[in-house]
Amino acid sequence: MTKRPSIGELLEPTLDGEATIKIIDSAISSRESELRLIASGLMDISGLGEFRCLFERIIQNLDDFSLDYKREWLTSPIVCSWINSMCSLESWSTGNKKLHRLLRLSSSIANKIPPSQSGKIELNSVNGCCFGYTADIVVRGVIGPKLIIEKSNNSMLLTDELSKTSFEVSDHDFSKPCEIVISANDNQFKIHKKPTLTGSRITVRNDVPTLKLMLRSDAPPGRLTGLNYEELDNSPSTYSEVIDPLPVVNTAEWLRTSWPEEYNDWLKTMHVIVQRTAPDGWYVGGFSLGAYQGAFWLCQTDPIDVFDQCVHEQSHIKLRYIQEFSQIIKDGQNNERFQVPWRTDLRPISGIYEGVYVNSHSAIAISKLVDSGFLDSDLLKGFAERHKLLVDHVSIGNSILKANAKFTTQGADFIDWTDSFISKHSKILY
After folding, report:
1. pLDDT tens for residues 409-424?
2. Alpha helix (H) residue ranges in 276-337
3. Does residue 229 belong to any structural domain of this protein?
4. N or C, where is the chain less crowded by C-beta within 10 Å?
5. Is residue 35 situated within a structural domain?
Protein backbone atom coordinates (compact mmCIF):
# COMPACT_ATOMS: atom_id res chain seq x y z
CA MET A 1 0.00 0.00 0.00
CA THR A 2 1.37 3.43 -0.94
CA LYS A 3 1.90 6.02 1.78
CA ARG A 4 -0.89 8.54 2.28
CA PRO A 5 0.49 12.06 1.69
CA SER A 6 0.32 14.47 4.61
CA ILE A 7 -1.17 17.97 4.41
CA GLY A 8 2.35 19.36 4.58
CA GLU A 9 3.35 17.33 1.52
CA LEU A 10 0.30 18.55 -0.39
CA LEU A 11 0.55 22.28 0.26
CA GLU A 12 3.50 22.83 -2.09
CA PRO A 13 3.94 21.01 -5.41
CA THR A 14 6.72 18.62 -6.36
CA LEU A 15 8.18 17.99 -9.79
CA ASP A 16 6.95 14.39 -9.96
CA GLY A 17 3.48 15.46 -8.78
CA GLU A 18 2.98 12.12 -7.04
CA ALA A 19 1.04 13.56 -4.08
CA THR A 20 -1.19 15.61 -6.40
CA ILE A 21 -1.98 12.52 -8.48
CA LYS A 22 -3.05 10.67 -5.33
CA ILE A 23 -5.57 13.30 -4.26
CA ILE A 24 -6.94 13.59 -7.81
CA ASP A 25 -7.37 9.82 -8.01
CA SER A 26 -9.17 9.88 -4.67
CA ALA A 27 -11.58 12.51 -6.04
CA ILE A 28 -12.03 10.50 -9.24
CA SER A 29 -13.04 7.46 -7.21
CA SER A 30 -15.77 9.49 -5.48
CA ARG A 31 -17.04 10.95 -8.77
CA GLU A 32 -17.06 7.51 -10.36
CA SER A 33 -19.31 6.26 -7.57
CA GLU A 34 -21.62 9.27 -7.91
CA LEU A 35 -21.85 8.95 -11.68
CA ARG A 36 -22.55 5.23 -11.48
CA LEU A 37 -25.36 5.84 -8.96
CA ILE A 38 -26.86 8.59 -11.13
CA ALA A 39 -26.73 6.54 -14.33
CA SER A 40 -28.12 3.41 -12.66
CA GLY A 41 -30.86 5.39 -10.91
CA LEU A 42 -31.97 7.14 -14.09
CA MET A 43 -32.17 3.85 -15.95
CA ASP A 44 -34.80 2.72 -13.44
CA ILE A 45 -37.06 5.62 -14.42
CA SER A 46 -39.82 4.76 -16.88
CA GLY A 47 -40.20 7.01 -19.88
CA LEU A 48 -36.47 7.67 -20.23
CA GLY A 49 -36.71 6.86 -23.95
CA GLU A 50 -33.70 7.75 -26.11
CA PHE A 51 -31.62 8.74 -23.08
CA ARG A 52 -31.42 5.18 -21.78
CA CYS A 53 -28.68 4.22 -24.23
CA LEU A 54 -26.59 7.21 -23.08
CA PHE A 55 -26.62 6.02 -19.49
CA GLU A 56 -25.79 2.52 -20.65
CA ARG A 57 -22.77 4.07 -22.41
CA ILE A 58 -21.79 5.98 -19.26
CA ILE A 59 -21.84 2.78 -17.22
CA GLN A 60 -19.89 1.00 -19.96
CA ASN A 61 -17.31 3.80 -19.91
CA LEU A 62 -16.96 3.43 -16.14
CA ASP A 63 -16.37 -0.28 -16.58
CA ASP A 64 -13.99 -0.05 -19.55
CA PHE A 65 -12.01 3.19 -19.27
CA SER A 66 -8.41 3.00 -18.12
CA LEU A 67 -7.32 5.16 -15.20
CA ASP A 68 -5.79 7.71 -17.60
CA TYR A 69 -9.09 8.04 -19.48
CA LYS A 70 -10.97 8.38 -16.19
CA ARG A 71 -8.60 11.15 -15.12
CA GLU A 72 -9.38 13.04 -18.31
CA TRP A 73 -13.11 12.33 -18.10
CA LEU A 74 -13.93 12.75 -14.40
CA THR A 75 -11.77 15.85 -13.82
CA SER A 76 -13.52 17.72 -16.65
CA PRO A 77 -15.51 20.78 -15.49
CA ILE A 78 -18.25 19.79 -17.97
CA VAL A 79 -18.66 16.43 -16.24
CA CYS A 80 -18.16 17.76 -12.70
CA SER A 81 -20.83 20.44 -13.13
CA TRP A 82 -23.27 17.89 -14.60
CA ILE A 83 -22.77 15.51 -11.67
CA ASN A 84 -23.23 18.34 -9.17
CA SER A 85 -26.37 19.55 -10.92
CA MET A 86 -27.86 16.04 -10.97
CA CYS A 87 -27.08 15.54 -7.27
CA SER A 88 -28.72 18.86 -6.37
CA LEU A 89 -32.03 18.15 -8.15
CA GLU A 90 -34.97 17.91 -5.78
CA SER A 91 -36.89 15.64 -8.12
CA TRP A 92 -36.09 13.19 -10.90
CA SER A 93 -39.62 13.39 -12.23
CA THR A 94 -39.63 13.20 -16.04
CA GLY A 95 -41.70 16.39 -16.04
CA ASN A 96 -38.93 18.33 -14.32
CA LYS A 97 -37.56 20.90 -16.79
CA LYS A 98 -34.17 21.00 -15.11
CA LEU A 99 -33.91 17.23 -15.37
CA HIS A 100 -34.82 17.33 -19.05
CA ARG A 101 -32.10 19.90 -19.72
CA LEU A 102 -29.57 17.73 -17.91
CA LEU A 103 -30.76 14.62 -19.76
CA ARG A 104 -30.07 16.37 -23.07
CA LEU A 105 -26.58 17.23 -21.81
CA SER A 106 -25.93 13.58 -21.01
CA SER A 107 -24.89 12.99 -24.63
CA SER A 108 -21.94 15.31 -23.93
CA ILE A 109 -21.15 13.46 -20.68
CA ALA A 110 -21.11 10.07 -22.40
CA ASN A 111 -19.11 11.02 -25.50
CA LYS A 112 -15.99 12.78 -26.69
CA ILE A 113 -15.16 14.63 -29.91
CA PRO A 114 -13.69 12.92 -31.79
CA PRO A 115 -14.91 9.52 -30.60
CA SER A 116 -12.08 7.51 -29.08
CA GLN A 117 -12.69 4.75 -31.61
CA SER A 118 -14.03 4.60 -35.15
CA GLY A 119 -17.80 4.60 -35.09
CA LYS A 120 -20.83 6.87 -34.73
CA ILE A 121 -22.05 9.08 -31.90
CA GLU A 122 -24.96 11.53 -31.59
CA LEU A 123 -24.72 14.76 -29.62
CA ASN A 124 -27.59 16.98 -28.53
CA SER A 125 -27.02 20.65 -29.33
CA VAL A 126 -26.92 23.48 -26.79
CA ASN A 127 -27.53 26.92 -28.29
CA GLY A 128 -26.44 25.62 -31.70
CA CYS A 129 -23.27 24.00 -30.36
CA CYS A 130 -22.21 20.41 -29.76
CA PHE A 131 -19.33 19.24 -27.58
CA GLY A 132 -18.10 16.21 -25.69
CA TYR A 133 -16.97 15.68 -22.14
CA THR A 134 -13.71 17.57 -22.61
CA ALA A 135 -13.37 21.23 -23.57
CA ASP A 136 -11.24 20.28 -26.59
CA ILE A 137 -13.53 20.50 -29.63
CA VAL A 138 -16.74 22.48 -30.07
CA VAL A 139 -18.90 22.33 -33.21
CA ARG A 140 -20.85 25.54 -33.78
CA GLY A 141 -23.57 26.34 -36.33
CA VAL A 142 -25.73 23.27 -35.68
CA ILE A 143 -29.30 23.96 -36.83
CA GLY A 144 -31.06 20.86 -35.62
CA PRO A 145 -31.39 19.31 -32.15
CA LYS A 146 -28.67 16.76 -32.89
CA LEU A 147 -25.33 16.37 -34.61
CA ILE A 148 -24.27 12.94 -35.83
CA ILE A 149 -20.51 12.33 -35.86
CA GLU A 150 -18.92 9.39 -37.66
CA LYS A 151 -15.21 8.84 -37.23
CA SER A 152 -13.12 6.91 -39.73
CA ASN A 153 -9.34 6.84 -39.43
CA ASN A 154 -8.23 10.51 -39.44
CA SER A 155 -11.48 12.12 -40.58
CA MET A 156 -14.88 12.94 -39.13
CA LEU A 157 -18.20 13.16 -40.95
CA LEU A 158 -20.50 15.68 -39.26
CA THR A 159 -24.20 15.53 -40.15
CA ASP A 160 -26.77 18.06 -38.98
CA GLU A 161 -29.84 15.96 -38.20
CA LEU A 162 -32.34 18.64 -39.25
CA SER A 163 -30.78 19.91 -42.48
CA LYS A 164 -29.25 16.52 -43.38
CA THR A 165 -26.17 18.46 -44.45
CA SER A 166 -22.89 16.59 -44.01
CA PHE A 167 -19.38 17.94 -43.62
CA GLU A 168 -16.29 15.79 -43.97
CA VAL A 169 -13.56 17.17 -41.73
CA SER A 170 -10.13 15.74 -42.46
CA ASP A 171 -6.47 16.74 -42.57
CA HIS A 172 -6.65 18.09 -39.03
CA ASP A 173 -4.95 16.92 -35.85
CA PHE A 174 -7.98 16.30 -33.64
CA SER A 175 -5.78 16.03 -30.55
CA LYS A 176 -5.44 19.83 -30.78
CA PRO A 177 -8.32 21.92 -29.38
CA CYS A 178 -10.38 23.75 -31.98
CA GLU A 179 -13.76 25.15 -32.91
CA ILE A 180 -15.43 23.79 -36.03
CA VAL A 181 -17.98 26.19 -37.50
CA ILE A 182 -20.39 24.56 -39.94
CA SER A 183 -22.77 26.32 -42.32
CA ALA A 184 -25.65 24.32 -43.81
CA ASN A 185 -26.49 27.22 -46.17
CA ASP A 186 -23.33 26.92 -48.24
CA ASN A 187 -22.20 23.45 -47.13
CA GLN A 188 -18.91 24.88 -45.85
CA PHE A 189 -17.02 24.63 -42.60
CA LYS A 190 -14.12 26.44 -40.96
CA ILE A 191 -11.71 25.25 -38.28
CA HIS A 192 -10.43 27.75 -35.73
CA LYS A 193 -7.54 26.47 -33.64
CA LYS A 194 -7.65 27.21 -29.91
CA PRO A 195 -4.51 28.01 -27.95
CA THR A 196 -3.17 25.55 -25.40
CA LEU A 197 -0.58 26.01 -22.70
CA THR A 198 2.79 24.38 -23.40
CA GLY A 199 2.86 20.62 -22.95
CA SER A 200 -0.73 20.48 -21.76
CA ARG A 201 -4.39 19.87 -22.55
CA ILE A 202 -5.25 23.24 -20.95
CA THR A 203 -6.99 25.45 -23.48
CA VAL A 204 -7.90 29.13 -23.42
CA ARG A 205 -11.41 29.52 -24.83
CA ASN A 206 -14.88 30.81 -23.99
CA ASP A 207 -17.09 29.07 -26.55
CA VAL A 208 -18.17 26.00 -24.53
CA PRO A 209 -21.88 26.72 -23.91
CA THR A 210 -22.18 25.24 -20.41
CA LEU A 211 -19.17 27.26 -19.24
CA LYS A 212 -20.77 30.59 -20.22
CA LEU A 213 -21.83 31.30 -16.66
CA MET A 214 -24.01 34.30 -15.92
CA LEU A 215 -23.25 36.81 -13.17
CA ARG A 216 -26.26 38.78 -11.97
CA SER A 217 -25.61 42.49 -12.34
CA ASP A 218 -27.98 43.23 -9.42
CA ALA A 219 -25.86 41.21 -6.99
CA PRO A 220 -23.19 42.78 -4.75
CA PRO A 221 -20.19 43.53 -6.99
CA GLY A 222 -17.61 40.79 -6.92
CA ARG A 223 -19.58 38.35 -4.79
CA LEU A 224 -20.22 34.98 -6.36
CA THR A 225 -23.60 34.77 -4.66
CA GLY A 226 -24.38 36.64 -7.88
CA LEU A 227 -23.98 33.53 -10.02
CA ASN A 228 -27.12 32.54 -11.87
CA TYR A 229 -26.85 28.77 -12.26
CA GLU A 230 -30.11 28.47 -14.17
CA GLU A 231 -29.16 30.59 -17.18
CA LEU A 232 -26.24 30.85 -19.56
CA ASP A 233 -24.83 34.16 -20.70
CA ASN A 234 -24.72 34.29 -24.49
CA SER A 235 -23.96 37.99 -24.69
CA PRO A 236 -21.01 38.69 -27.02
CA SER A 237 -20.04 41.57 -24.75
CA THR A 238 -19.43 39.05 -21.94
CA TYR A 239 -17.93 36.17 -23.87
CA SER A 240 -16.45 37.83 -26.93
CA GLU A 241 -15.61 35.71 -29.97
CA VAL A 242 -12.42 37.76 -30.27
CA ILE A 243 -10.18 37.08 -27.28
CA ASP A 244 -6.49 37.69 -26.72
CA PRO A 245 -5.00 34.58 -25.10
CA LEU A 246 -1.45 36.00 -25.12
CA PRO A 247 -1.46 37.26 -21.48
CA VAL A 248 -2.49 33.78 -20.31
CA VAL A 249 0.01 32.03 -22.59
CA ASN A 250 2.76 34.35 -21.32
CA THR A 251 1.77 33.68 -17.72
CA ALA A 252 1.99 29.95 -18.31
CA GLU A 253 5.43 30.26 -19.90
CA TRP A 254 6.71 32.42 -17.06
CA LEU A 255 5.43 29.91 -14.51
CA ARG A 256 6.66 26.86 -16.45
CA THR A 257 10.22 28.15 -16.56
CA SER A 258 10.41 29.80 -13.12
CA TRP A 259 8.40 27.33 -11.00
CA PRO A 260 8.03 24.04 -12.97
CA GLU A 261 6.67 22.17 -9.94
CA GLU A 262 3.66 24.49 -9.75
CA TYR A 263 3.15 24.33 -13.51
CA ASN A 264 3.18 20.55 -13.26
CA ASP A 265 0.24 20.84 -10.86
CA TRP A 266 -1.56 22.97 -13.46
CA LEU A 267 -1.19 20.15 -15.98
CA LYS A 268 -2.85 17.71 -13.61
CA THR A 269 -5.68 19.84 -12.23
CA MET A 270 -6.87 22.13 -15.03
CA HIS A 271 -8.72 21.79 -18.33
CA VAL A 272 -9.78 25.25 -19.48
CA ILE A 273 -9.32 28.95 -18.76
CA VAL A 274 -12.41 30.94 -19.76
CA GLN A 275 -11.84 34.60 -20.63
CA ARG A 276 -14.81 36.88 -20.00
CA THR A 277 -15.71 40.41 -18.86
CA ALA A 278 -17.23 41.34 -15.51
CA PRO A 279 -20.64 43.05 -15.24
CA ASP A 280 -20.62 46.85 -15.19
CA GLY A 281 -19.62 48.18 -11.79
CA TRP A 282 -17.94 44.96 -10.71
CA TYR A 283 -14.31 44.40 -9.90
CA VAL A 284 -13.52 40.73 -10.05
CA GLY A 285 -10.17 39.42 -11.22
CA GLY A 286 -11.55 35.96 -11.85
CA PHE A 287 -13.26 33.09 -10.11
CA SER A 288 -13.45 29.34 -9.86
CA LEU A 289 -16.15 27.08 -8.47
CA GLY A 290 -16.12 23.72 -6.74
CA ALA A 291 -18.98 22.58 -8.97
CA TYR A 292 -16.80 23.25 -12.03
CA GLN A 293 -13.46 21.78 -10.94
CA GLY A 294 -10.86 22.06 -13.68
CA ALA A 295 -11.98 25.46 -15.01
CA PHE A 296 -11.62 29.06 -13.97
CA TRP A 297 -12.91 32.34 -15.36
CA LEU A 298 -10.51 35.22 -15.98
CA CYS A 299 -11.63 38.86 -16.22
CA GLN A 300 -8.23 40.56 -16.43
CA THR A 301 -5.75 41.41 -19.21
CA ASP A 302 -2.97 43.28 -17.35
CA PRO A 303 0.07 40.92 -17.19
CA ILE A 304 0.56 41.29 -13.43
CA ASP A 305 -3.14 40.76 -12.69
CA VAL A 306 -3.30 37.79 -15.08
CA PHE A 307 -0.27 36.08 -13.53
CA ASP A 308 -1.51 36.64 -9.98
CA GLN A 309 -5.08 35.60 -10.82
CA CYS A 310 -4.14 32.46 -12.73
CA VAL A 311 -1.94 31.16 -9.90
CA HIS A 312 -4.61 32.24 -7.38
CA GLU A 313 -7.47 30.38 -9.08
CA GLN A 314 -5.49 27.22 -9.81
CA SER A 315 -4.52 27.19 -6.15
CA HIS A 316 -8.23 27.20 -5.24
CA ILE A 317 -8.68 24.19 -7.54
CA LYS A 318 -5.75 22.36 -5.94
CA LEU A 319 -6.97 23.21 -2.42
CA ARG A 320 -10.40 21.77 -3.19
CA TYR A 321 -8.75 18.48 -4.12
CA ILE A 322 -6.79 18.61 -0.85
CA GLN A 323 -9.99 19.32 1.10
CA GLU A 324 -11.75 16.36 -0.55
CA PHE A 325 -8.83 14.15 0.44
CA SER A 326 -8.22 15.35 4.00
CA GLN A 327 -10.08 17.82 6.23
CA ILE A 328 -7.84 20.71 7.33
CA ILE A 329 -10.01 22.70 9.75
CA LYS A 330 -12.61 21.38 12.16
CA ASP A 331 -16.31 21.84 11.42
CA GLY A 332 -18.48 24.50 13.05
CA GLN A 333 -16.30 27.57 12.51
CA ASN A 334 -18.54 29.60 10.21
CA ASN A 335 -20.41 31.73 12.74
CA GLU A 336 -17.63 34.11 13.76
CA ARG A 337 -16.38 36.39 10.96
CA PHE A 338 -13.32 38.56 10.61
CA GLN A 339 -12.14 41.50 8.51
CA VAL A 340 -9.37 40.64 6.04
CA PRO A 341 -7.62 43.02 3.63
CA TRP A 342 -8.28 41.05 0.47
CA ARG A 343 -12.08 41.11 0.78
CA THR A 344 -14.64 43.81 1.55
CA ASP A 345 -16.96 41.41 3.40
CA LEU A 346 -16.25 39.70 6.73
CA ARG A 347 -14.87 36.20 6.28
CA PRO A 348 -15.28 32.95 8.23
CA ILE A 349 -12.25 30.88 9.24
CA SER A 350 -12.71 28.62 6.20
CA GLY A 351 -12.53 31.60 3.86
CA ILE A 352 -9.48 33.00 5.64
CA TYR A 353 -7.37 29.86 5.44
CA GLU A 354 -8.29 29.48 1.78
CA GLY A 355 -7.25 33.08 1.15
CA VAL A 356 -3.99 32.57 3.02
CA TYR A 357 -3.22 29.48 0.95
CA VAL A 358 -3.94 30.95 -2.49
CA ASN A 359 -2.28 34.30 -1.76
CA SER A 360 0.79 32.44 -0.50
CA HIS A 361 1.02 30.52 -3.77
CA SER A 362 0.70 33.71 -5.81
CA ALA A 363 3.45 35.34 -3.75
CA ILE A 364 5.77 32.33 -4.13
CA ALA A 365 5.16 32.31 -7.88
CA ILE A 366 5.93 36.03 -8.15
CA SER A 367 9.10 35.63 -6.07
CA LYS A 368 10.37 32.88 -8.34
CA LEU A 369 9.42 34.90 -11.45
CA VAL A 370 11.28 37.98 -10.19
CA ASP A 371 14.36 35.84 -9.45
CA SER A 372 14.23 34.32 -12.95
CA GLY A 373 15.42 37.47 -14.71
CA PHE A 374 12.67 37.40 -17.38
CA LEU A 375 11.10 40.76 -16.48
CA ASP A 376 11.88 44.28 -17.61
CA SER A 377 12.25 47.02 -14.99
CA ASP A 378 8.63 48.23 -15.18
CA LEU A 379 7.17 44.76 -14.71
CA LEU A 380 9.76 43.96 -12.08
CA LYS A 381 8.65 46.92 -9.97
CA GLY A 382 4.97 46.08 -10.38
CA PHE A 383 5.44 42.42 -9.48
CA ALA A 384 7.56 43.35 -6.44
CA GLU A 385 4.79 45.66 -5.19
CA ARG A 386 2.20 42.91 -5.70
CA HIS A 387 4.41 40.42 -3.83
CA LYS A 388 4.66 42.73 -0.81
CA LEU A 389 0.89 43.24 -0.80
CA LEU A 390 0.24 39.49 -0.90
CA VAL A 391 2.74 38.74 1.87
CA ASP A 392 1.13 41.43 4.04
CA HIS A 393 -2.28 39.88 3.42
CA VAL A 394 -1.00 36.40 4.28
CA SER A 395 0.59 37.69 7.50
CA ILE A 396 -2.68 39.30 8.65
CA GLY A 397 -4.72 36.21 7.74
CA ASN A 398 -2.21 33.92 9.44
CA SER A 399 -2.43 35.92 12.69
CA ILE A 400 -6.23 35.52 12.66
CA LEU A 401 -5.90 31.77 12.09
CA LYS A 402 -3.34 31.32 14.88
CA ALA A 403 -5.60 33.16 17.33
CA ASN A 404 -8.95 31.67 16.35
CA ALA A 405 -8.83 28.61 14.04
CA LYS A 406 -9.26 25.02 15.20
CA PHE A 407 -7.35 22.65 12.93
CA THR A 408 -7.75 18.91 12.59
CA THR A 409 -4.87 16.65 13.56
CA GLN A 410 -3.87 16.26 9.90
CA GLY A 411 -4.41 19.98 9.25
CA ALA A 412 -2.01 21.09 11.98
CA ASP A 413 0.79 21.33 9.37
CA PHE A 414 -0.98 24.29 7.78
CA ILE A 415 0.21 26.92 10.27
CA ASP A 416 3.76 25.55 10.19
CA TRP A 417 3.70 25.94 6.41
CA THR A 418 2.38 29.51 6.50
CA ASP A 419 4.85 30.50 9.24
CA SER A 420 7.66 29.17 7.07
CA PHE A 421 6.28 31.06 4.06
CA ILE A 422 6.19 34.37 5.94
CA SER A 423 9.72 33.85 7.22
CA LYS A 424 11.04 33.23 3.70
CA HIS A 425 9.12 35.98 1.90
CA SER A 426 9.11 38.94 4.28
CA LYS A 427 11.97 40.69 2.47
CA ILE A 428 11.34 43.31 -0.24
CA LEU A 429 12.01 41.85 -3.68
CA TYR A 430 12.97 45.02 -5.58
Report:
1. 999 999 999 999 999 8
2. 303-325
3. no
4. N
5. no
